[in-house]
Design goal:
It contains 16 helices and no strands. It is mainly α. The chain has one domain. Helix 4 (about 80-105) runs antiparallel to helix 15 (about 320-360), helix 8 runs antiparallel to helix 10 (about 210-225) and helix 14 runs antiparallel to helix 15 (about 320-360). The chain is globular. The two termini are about 20 Å apart.
């Protein structure tokens, strides 16, 4: 049963990265924020729901991360052990991708690259995974090398929160503590907004209340998977997290995101994870080899897909017709997947294994058998 579920996690990663790629390749640059003309097909797909709401692939990654971090904390021998495991998982591929993307965006004459020229201070938030606001006092125009790094900043916040709750409180009650923490920070933010008209979001940056329900749900699913929670208790916890997710989704209506559609997609994700945790045979379709293959290298694909993919797509002619344009987008997407796979096999996976062996020692067999990365 365990192997089924872990393969299905890779399948879910594959679904998540394909959703995000669809969002960036068909909708993002024609959205409420940009209204640019970098897509050869313009706004043709601006009302296609799977592209418009493809950003929720990031939230699906957050559920997966909640599941995996609960597992990783359980197998870590100390706080330092956990920190090292996260470092070797995140930073080697990040450093290489940031350097390559930096030079690619400066050297390319593609329309997308011309809009995103880089300067060296962009490495500061990108390689430390800290908010750009932390550096804007010194460098007013500082930004991430590529915009997708914002979600890694959120991930790091969650790692810190989960580690603190795990090591300071009952270690076998992480899911419960994350749910309580999530409700507490949501209420605290509501009170802060009421008593502080000039509330500037520092609390949000520290405690990520908009994203914690997704991570907490993932931890609940892990404990359900380990049969530490009854289905009834897990259902109550998940219902509370879903209420927060649905409520938070209403905040984004002003940028054209229908909270009903977003909440429905969230419910679908939670239902998939429920089946994965309780009846893995029901989600066997997530274990098809192409989806698992994509999921295995999804982190590397995520790092490269936006810059590399949009450099290619923004160069497609606007006059060749929709059919040829879509064929070229498909070719660009396949190229991005291959870049991600090369990064996974040449950088991400070897660096993780080598650094883990040096800094921690040979992996213990139980931990190695259950180590899908976030």
């Amino acid at each position: 049963m365990a192997s089924h579920r872990l393969h299905a996690l890779d399948g879910l990663r594959g679904v998540a990265i394909l959703l995000v790629m669809g969002f960036h390749y068909f909708y993002h640059l024609e959205s409420f924020y940009y209204k640019s003309t970098l897509y050869p097909y313009g706004e043709t797909f601006s009302n296609t729901l799977i592209f418009k709401y493809g950003y929720m692939g990031v939230e699906l990654f957050f559920i997966i991360s909640g599941f995996v971090i609960a597992m990783t904390l359980e197998s870590s021998r100390s706080v330092l052990d956990f920190v090292i495991r996260r470092f070797v998982r995140i930073w080697p591929a990040l450093i290489v991708s940031a350097v390559l993307t930096f030079f690619l965006l400066n050297w390319s004459d593609a329309p997308f690259a011309l809009h995103r020229r880089q300067f060296w201070p962009n490495f500061l938030p990108s390689l430390t995974l800290t908010p750009t606001s932390l550096w804007s006092g010194l460098f007013p125009k500082v930004d991430f090398v590529t915009n997708v790094y914002w979600s890694l900043v959120v991930e790091i916040r969650f790692y810190m929160i989960a580690a603190i709750l795990f090591w300071l409180f009952a270690r076998d009650r992480l899911a419960r503590n994350l749910v309580i923490f999530t409700v507490a920070i949501y209420i605290a933010r509501a009170l802060l907004r009421r008593v502080m008209p000039g509330y500037n979001g520092v609390f949000d940056a520290l405690f990520i209340p908009d994203y914690m329900p997704w991570f907490a749900a993932g931890a609940v699913f892990y404990e359900l998977y380990k049969e530490r929670l009854t289905k009834g208790v897990a259902l109550v916890m998940l219902a509370v997290m879903y209420i927060l997710i649905a409520r938070i989704s209403t905040n984004y209506a002003v940028i054209g995101r229908d909270p009903v559609i977003a909440s429905t997609a969230a419910l679908f994700f939670l239902a998939l994870f429920w089946l994965l945790s309780t009846r893995p045979a029901a989600v066997g379709f997530l274990e098809i080899r192409p989806l698992v293959w994509i999921g295995e290298c999804s982190y590397s694909v995520y790092l490269y897909h936006y810059a590399v993919g949009m450099i290619l797509i923004s160069q497609i002619s606007k006059t060749i017709g929709l059919g040829p344009q879509l064929l070229l987008v498909a070719a660009a997407s396949l190229f991005v997947l291959m870049v991600g796979r090369i990064s996974y096999t040449a950088v991400e996976n070897p660096a993780r294994r080598w650094l883990t062996k040096i800094l921690i020692g040979p992996p213990q067999k139980p931990a190695a058998a259950a180590s899908p990365a976030a």
